[in-house]
Amino acid sequence: MLSADRVSKSFAVRAGFGQRSKHLMALKDVSLDIHVGETVGLVGESGSGKSTLGRVLLGLLAPTAGVVRFDGAPLPRRPPIAFRRACQVVFQDPASSLDPRMTARAIIAEPLDIHRIGSTLERQSRVDDLARRVGLDPNALDRRPHAFSGGQRQRIGIARALALAPRLIVLDEPVSALDVSVQAQIVNLLADLRTENRLSYLFISHDLRLIRHLADRVAVMYLGRIVELAPAAALFADPRHPYTRWLIDSIPTVSESPHPARVPLPLADTSEPPSPFSPPTGCAFHPRCPIRQRDCSNVEPELTRVSENHFAACPYAS
Hints:
About 30% of the residues lie in helices and about 25% in strands. By secondary structure, it is of the alpha/beta class. The protein has a domain at about 240-318.
């Protein structure tokens, strides 16, 4: 339904007085497909390019190179109304993504108003129905966002995203700002809505436990590139890229070892990721990689098949 074909995105960052502007390569040759009814998890450390990829796929940012396709057709620089209706987003922080001057009812109804869908009475009925579907009391919708809890505000954001009956929703860290108990409620709600409406999700998160619970396939990003792509079950059972293995071994657990059959993989030299303004040559992960070889600093590996439907950007993946 929605795909990125070798998409790159760079930003010009202004430097200080008398200095040249710098270029930050946020995405580099990223290819990713999202199919109908599928949830794709997108994971990686902060600054890996996850949110930038989500915004490029939504047409909020134009790619520097490559092309985004929707239903097989290239997405123009100014996406058509049909695309805007079909693809929506739920942002990370519900407090900052909701207009504090508007009531919850007006926030949920805004997409219907913009697209002129239905009469006034039909829109109000639609808003009440959306509120019930996400677990909100329609009688409370005349309050402003500050009067709701964090979980309720995120439900308002989800209801707004559902207003136009979209086919795909980009979820950009939708529960990271919420308490753990509220996170579980929102995640279960998203799972139920996906089943009811046959929605597709791009679920962006650094929490691999949530991704494991929700995603059908998982893409792992590192410094603007996808370094591993596989079905969720295969990726968590048998991660091939050393960066993916390190991420999974870092999942907090109450047991002595999250993966007793496998020795946790330590990072080499430093645990800090390199600067995106001056990325390493060759494989971007090689300064931190414990299994690096001599040619890793010179050759940039491509994402290649290592088994059925499992791809990794490491020639030494095992």
